[in-house]
Design goal:
An eight-stranded mixed beta sheet has the order 4-11-10-9-8-5-6-7. It is globular. α13 packs parallel to α15. With 471 residues, it is an alpha/beta fold. 37% of the residues lie in helices and 14% in strands.
């Protein structure tokens, strides 16, 4: 195994891990690194280049995610064959339409799906009709860049009563999705900020940091949530967390960890917490978990949420609550920006909330999802002790662990051949882990009847029998 010759320019704005990633990728594409070659270990390459192991880990993780290298447990990283990625001279394309092949999937355990049958179309249609009227012609013009006051006021009121978030409507910023708001947060936090992310965690957010040239340090998640002691030693200044229902594990950040995290945030002038409260509306046991923002006394928490789970993903309305210091920065940085959510949609939602329909819809959906969760867990229990699950206290998905010698990829493929799409937990990790395979099972988009059928079909595909171990 030869050491890689990589030229790092530490004076540029390009993160070191991205420079390492770019040069290794280019060497693989150019054929300078042959297929099957073992790359140096993270420790050895880090020592050679005088950078941290985390920097090497981030570069290797991105290369692995794009298929340029692969990881073999306890052996290391190896260069993959990339003939299919090679650049070729474009050929003249015929006018024939090519129909993309679609997998024959009958059941999809996607954690992002919702129950579309129970949406309150009648009430939504009423408010849409009221808003889309000549008397509302002023809504055809641009509104406040932070979002219209009516919706921000309803959001602030809702957050206070349901999540304990202490804010004014002025602190609420409306945007068209988390992926649109996060780059704005990144900009006001400055180029010196270094981010800590949960591992495993939400892939979209990880990509946002990467594409905005920000270093993101993975911090392990255990049975109490993000490991705050590792965060304290990481050198990060901003922590991105999903404390009320960690995605994807479903862990709730413990009280001790919450206190430690808030203490960490208050220990530095530019330390902040990004609290993504993506599905806190759906908790099925005990009391609602209070938000970190409501516990924060130093103005260090940025609260982030969306209506994707509670209403519909296609609405494309998310919001964030900025502490006063960052709100001042935001107003100066984006004074010329316009709101990215149509005003008509904002006012339909504001009236829907003001009329009490949003709360009633949540109460109804909480009962529906609780019933589906109950059916799912009861079906899975009949296959114990050879399968187990966790994260069933809240949210719209659970984690299913299969006690088997087979790996995650082979089980995923077996499910796909049976017309079932499942989502392996390793897809959400920075570096895949060996051991017993685990999967996210989202139940929001499946009826109780479908759940009973698909669990049996899935276990058949994996050759698991009730009450006996056969894999």
């Amino acid at each position: 195994m030869e050491m890689l010759v990589i030229e790092l320019k530490k004076s540029t704005d390009t993160p070191l891990y991205e420079q390492i990633y770019d040069q290794i990728k280019r060497d693989i594409t150019d054929g300078k690194l042959p297929v099957g070659m073992k790359l140096p270990s993270k420790r050895k390459l880090g020592d050679f280049l005088d950078v941290s192991q985390t920097t090497i880990e981030l570069a290797y993780a991105q290369l692995a995610a794009e298929g340029f290298i692969s990881s073999k447990p306890r052996k290391g990283f190896y260069v993959q064959a990339i003939e299919e990625l090679a650049y070729v001279q474009p050929m003249q394309v015929s006018g024939n339409t090519v129909i993309e092949k679609v997998d024959d999937i009958a059941f999809d355990f996607s954690p992002g799906k919702i129950d579309t049958e129970s949406f309150p179309f009648t009430q939504w249609r009423k408010y849409a009709k009221d808003v889309i009227d000549e008397s509302s012609k002023d809504l055809l013009l641009l509104g406040h860049p932070h979002g219209d006051w009516e919706l921000r006021q309803e959001i602030a009121r809702y957050l206070y009563h349901s999540r304990g978030v202490d804010c004014t409507p002025e602190q609420v910023i409306i945007g068209s999705g988390t992926e649109q708001l996060m780059p704005l947060v990144i900009r006001i936090l400055g180029t010196e900020a270094t981010y800590a992310i949960e591992d495993p965690g939400y892939p979209l957010t990880h990509h946002v940091f990467f594409h905005n040239n920000r270093e993101a340090i993975p911090i392990a998640v255990d049975e109490e949530g993000m490991d705050v002691s590792s965060l304290q030693n990481s050198g990060a200044s901003v922590a991105y967390v999903t404390p009320s229902h960690q995605f994807p594990t479903g862990i709730v950040l413990s009280a001790a960890r919450r206190t430690a995290l808030l203490n960490w945030a208050s220990s530095g002038d530019e330390h902040f917490i990004i609290e993504d409260d993506y599905d806190s509306e759906f908790r099925y046991t005990g009391r609602t978990i209070p938000s970190l923002q409501g516990m924060d006394k130093g103005g260090n928490v940025i609260y982030l949420s969306t209506f994707s789970k509670s209403l519909m993903p296609s609405l494309r309305i998310a919001y964030m609550v900025l502490p006063p210091l960052l709100l001042n920065r935001y107003e100066k940085a984006f004074i010329h920006y316009s709101a990215t959510v149509p005003r008509l949609d904002q006012h339909i939602l504001a009236r829907f909330m003001a009329g009490g329909h949003f709360s009633r819809h949540l109460n109804r959906m909480r009962k529906i999802y609780r019933r589906r969760l109950q059916v799912l867990t009861e079906e899975l229990l009949s296959y114990a002790p050879y399968v187990s699950f966790s994260g069933d206290e809240a949210g719209m998905h659970i984690i299913l662990t299969i006690h088997t010698e087979r790996d995650e990829s082979s089980l995923t493929e077996a499910a796909r051949k049976a017309g079932i799409r499942v989502y392996g937990l390793n897809a959400y990790r920075t570096v895949p882990m060996a051991g017993e395979p685990s999967f996210l099972l989202g139940f929001g988009g499946l009826s109780t009847h479908a759940i009973k059928q698909v669990v049996g079909d899935l276990m058949d595909a994996w050759t698991i029998k009730k009450g006996e171990k056969s894999i």
